[in-house]
Amino acid sequence: MSIDRKIPRFPAAGAIALRFAPLVPVSLAGARLVKTLGRRHPGLFARLGEQAGKIFLIDPIDLPLVFRLAPRADGPRLEAFRRGSAGPWDARIGGPLAALLGMVHGVYDGDALFFSRDLVIEGDTGAVLALRNAIDNEEIDLAAEVAAQFGPLEFLASSPARHLAALVGGLSGVALTRAIREPAA
Q: Can you tell me the distance from the alpha carbon of 146 to that of 153, in angstroms, rounded to the nearest whole number?
């Protein structure tokens, strides 16, 4: 989990295209994703305690969008906003999209990202630490969470989602899925 290579940036052409993307579908997908996360990983938001009432600004600095996360156990929300229009927040986590996704998937260590200045934390650092610890504890795999959106057909979507995430991740250098750990011998 060390940072011994350059963190890839989101392609500029893609970022330009996202400037014109409608926010409603992105916010709806984000809302559904955090509700699924809350259902499949009940400890994720519950373990935040009083920090669950905070608003986190997730700021992928190489995108024209930011995300406001309200991680309440009884109704977590994730909404997309244009940069500069997200409103108030308690804590901001900023960095390249690849670094943020890599932290979720255990590829990058948050402390190493922070000390290398690839990750910027503002506001309530205690809340950020609690969120990071909750995410680390759950070992989230976003490809699996996307497959879970298919409900009872998750078993059909799981393998293609994992293979697509691995392919795109391999080409882009961005961790879109958690590495499968080999059982200890």
A: 12
